[in-house]
Amino acid sequence: MLQDSGIPKQSFISLFKLQVIIWTMIGVNILFVIARTFARYVKLRKLQLEDIMMFLALAFFLSMAGVYLLVLPPLYRVIDVSAGTKPLYPMFFKDAYLIIKGFFATTMLFWATLWAVKVSLLLLFRRLMVGLTHYMRLWWMLLIFTLITFGGCVVSEVLSCEHWFQIDIKGSCNSDRDEYAQKICLFYALAADLITDILSMPRARFYKVRPLTTLSQ
Length: 217
Hints:
single chain, 217 residues, mainly alpha, 6 helices, 0% strand, disordered N terminus, disordered C terminus
């Protein structure tokens, strides 16, 4: 029932090393946000909307890292059983279902983190366009499009498995329908990420329209 669930059959890095990497990334991200906030506050003496979005992105990232840390031990136990190095244990299927649910949550949180950063950057560069009606219209269009693509990521992930919320009863998400939906979900998310990044690139032109001091207003 779980053989095609997407859970790997062998590990290529030890559990301890992977946990160290995750904790290191947690520390690096926290330090980055603290340093960014301190620099911004020293300059502006107040927090802006883009700073709040960056805090939200950090919260999503920490939640994602927390879920990974939660599912890693059972993931390695399931991998050991799948590889034949350890016998089947009573909690095997419960662990496997927990892993599948955890991967669902981390995917959602990953996209939430990524899109929160996108919105934070959009809010940052918005100041360069204040008073420029044409550019402000484009900015609003890009913001709305970015939010819609995020909604598409969420919907496509939910639809990628017919029994996400009944996984304990129905089994893994490995039907032909689910596999096809998962491919669509993956390609959509990649396309949405790339397209929103590409559409945001022209905002660099606004540096030529407004001085950088506008960002500090």
